[in-house]
Amino acid sequence: MSDPSRTPPPSPASRPSRRTVLRSGLGLGLGATVAGAGLLGAAPAQAAGQNGTPLCDEPGDSASAQGLGSGDLGIPYHREHDNTWGYVFGDAWTHIQQGEPYIGSPVMLNQDSFDASGASPISFTWAMPTGGAAGQLFGYAHRADNGYGFEISRIPNDCIEFGGRTYIQYTSVYTWGGPDDPPWVDGHDGSLMSGVAYSDDYGVTWTDYDYHWDGDHRGINQSMYGMWSFAGIDPDGWLYIFSKRWNGTHRNSADGGAIQLFRIRPDDFRAGNFGAQQNWAYLNGSWQWTGSATPPSVILSGNNTGEFSVKRIGDTYCMSCFDVVLGAIFTRTAARPDAVWSTPVPKITSVQVPNLYGGYIHPGSASASSLTLIVSQWNGTVGAPPYWVRQFDGVNPTSVV
């Protein structure tokens, strides 16, 4: 987030094409994972609790009771105003088999209470935005120009509520690289822009902040502000945010997995005063917090990183990252956002969940050594459910099996 008065620093929707791209883009990584069992090891054992329980795409499940048959992501967040839980999905359909009727993106289902022990799986008890059947939260048209340029869909990356307001950070997608989409250019991330939408009625109505972070098709390819994860408000009073390049297709060959860190006071964030951020940067031989004039430095890098999630669980910061090359979700921890992070450990692999992605940390996890992860899976079989969202409990982010 740079000063909005300045240029940001560089660095009926049919979504089957995205999953086609996902499938082809992951082919090498998934094959390497299966063939390289010695590298990732056998499927890691899980503690007591849910171990891949599907939360949608099952006839008669709680998602279908709320009007959602098929959807992915299921990003969890705490609705602090009433101590309930929300789950934000990407593109979603009312039927289990992909096709019409299409609901849209993002879509939200909610839950009265979450069982952190994992003894009972997540069960959705009502849908937004009206409390009736699930519907698209944002008011925009798909495969249209909504005033910023052509966009296919707006995909949520994370959600947080504090101070009576709910926020979703999203990426507007210009192309998924499919046969019905605008042409894909290798090395480009396919985004239009990124933005933050907010709701002052806990998810019923949504407003976009005026400022947007330009993406690939607005002149800033590989913007490091493409995907965010809200780590939460630390006891020091700052809201910590991690961000990286958009890599929703998992085909972004120019994405080396870089992640950056910035922070902002909650009141400034609420006011849209994004220029008030401070950046974690390596400057003059040392790491330090700087003003927005100095861009953040890369704190972590590695294999192409798809979806990622950072949350403060107890007194520990926990991170999960989808490693596109290895086809696995890795986890690590740190005492603070700006501290040294532990060595990444593979926790959920394609041996357990073929065609996996996502891997969002539930903020209500039992502890920093017993996380709940929400993992997406795509099924390329014609006529089968296209998406699953699966629940894994008891994930110890630093234990090596």
UniProtKB/TrEMBL annotation:
Residues 45-71 are annotated as: Disordered. Residues 59-392 form the DUF4185 domain. Transmembrane segments: none annotated. InterPro entries: DUF4185, TAT_signal. It comes from the Bacteria. Pfam families: DUF4185. This is DUF4185 domain-containing protein. The lineage of its organism: Bacteria, Bacillati, Actinomycetota, Actinomycetes, Kitasatosporales.
